[in-house]
Amino acid sequence: MNEEKNIWEQLNELPRDEGKEQSSWNLIESKTKNSGKLTWLLSGLVTVFVTFLIVILINISNKELLPIQSTEHSNLQAIYFMRNTSFSDFKLVHSSLYSNVNAINDEYVLANYEKYINHMDPVSPPDPIYSTEKFYDLSFVYKDGSIRSFKLLPLDYFYDIETKQWYYMEYEKIQSLNINHYALYDSILFKGSFWHTILIILIAVGLNISEHIIKRKYNMKKIKFVENNLFAKICYYCLLVLIVAMIFSIVYFKWVIHFAWILLYLITIAVACILVEKKYGSGKPSLYYMIISIIAKETVLFIFILPI
Amino acid sequence: MEELYRTYNRTIFKYIFYLVQNEQLAEDFVQETFLKAFKNRNSFRNESSDITWLRKIARNIVYDYFRRKKLISFLPFQTKHDQKSPDIAMKYILENEERKELFYALSKIKSAYREVLILRKIEQLSIEETAEILGWKIDKVKNTQRAAIKSLKQIWKGAEENE
């Protein structure tokens, strides 16, 4: 009986880690002071991200589905184009839900383009050797469903993909037909988007603020990801390399991939990063910051591959 | 607030640790217990002592966890709660064979039995205090304790020897 009492008493004398006792108190103290702030910040960022995606997808879908009202009339439904392609490849698809594919739906521009391609003159292949140049791929989709596809050598020579014929139009003829030459090329030139820039700045500021709040909340000097495990560190950096490699490949090699696949890829990598951090990371602060930063970084990368 | 934490955090940690048998989880639940306690401090009407009130909060948190765990037990992607290398409390249990055996035996019996033994045998609380924490009648505490010891004897041979 005495021995039994001893063993129960031994269990009653369970030691407590003083370091953890103190850090638990620090956490409780900071949570009672700033309760809710981090939750708001997290849900705010997620909301911004989801709203942004919804707006972008609705915007892209609407561009494809809704005809734009204008006084100009055209038989063209839309023009799809890609920048900086090579002469030998023609990967263009007829939807702007794909990476590197842009769409023109403006009736005025469409009407001008239609007039332009209807009056182009067949010419011999231009000089210098065109195969080394960078081209624009253009597809003219008509309302009756027919399609004409061209390679455009900046900024005047058109090459018909089907008939293998080069076309050109003299400046005087453009003038006489009253074609707005500037509007045509302006519609396909690369222009930085004001809203994309603002969004990227907002995300960067949000990320900095959230890091500051987490560090203050958990009394940390620096937030490190997967700091205690080399294998996890390697996994984490491999996953980051996978993201950068995909974005780089899409931009450099002109991959045409549906945005749903890109999103799925980014979400999978994000989940993998978060799981690695959850399993091998140093606790809640780094996990929270990992979730925030991975959402922010992937949003920025996604913005880069959106058609502008 | 800090005084309350300093006075009772070890008792609460011990209670939760023996209930969930996982040090990291116990640490998280201690934080949750005190956070809830501080949040609801105004609604505490001093009908019981501070430690009884804290134990009740801790018990609710642990049982919520058990319910959630049971609810999601069919999910294929569940991982066990992080239990890295044993920390101080677990080391203390593992360094003595008899403690280890009793600890594992406690994990094998029904949670109601385990709880009665934690309060009555480990923490040496009175039957009345135990009844108040568990919300049971005194007779139920007595009967459950008897059944708990009987059940423990079937698993842990030390119980027989120590009786």
Describe the protein in words.
The complex is a heterodimer of chains A (308) and B (163). Chain A is of the alpha+beta class and 308 residues long. Chain A is 56% helix and 12% strand. Chain A is built from 10 helices and 7 strands. A 7-stranded antiparallel sheet of chain A has the order 2-1-4-5-6-7-3, with helices on one face. In chain A, helix 8 (230-252) packs antiparallel against helix 9 and helix 8 packs parallel to helix 10. In chain A, 22% of the residues are buried. Mean pLDDT of chain A is 79; it is low at 64-71. Chain B is mainly α and 163 residues long. Chain B is 74% helix and 0% strand. Chain B is globular and about 45 Å long. The termini of chain B are far apart. The A-B interface holds A 1, 3-4, 7-12, 14-17, 20-21, 24-25, 27-29, 31-32, 279 and B 1-2, 5-6, 9-10, 13-14, 17-18, 27, 30-31, 34-35, 38-39, 79, 82, 87-89, 92-93, 96, 98-99, 102-103, 121-124, 158-159, 161-163.
Brief summary of the model shown:
By secondary structure, chain A is of the alpha+beta class.
**What overall geometry of chain B do the principal axes of the alpha carbons give?**
globular
Total strands of chain A: the figure is 7
Give the neighbour order of strands across the main sheet of chain A. 2-1-4-5-6-7-3
Query: What kind of assembly state do the chains in view correspond to?
Result: heterodimer
- In angstroms, what is the radius of gyration of chain A? 29 Å
- In whole angstroms, how far apart are the ends of chain B? 42 Å
The overall average pLDDT of chain A, rounded, is: 79
Low-confidence stretches of chain A: 64-71
Helix content range of chain B:
over 70%
Number of helices of chain A: 10
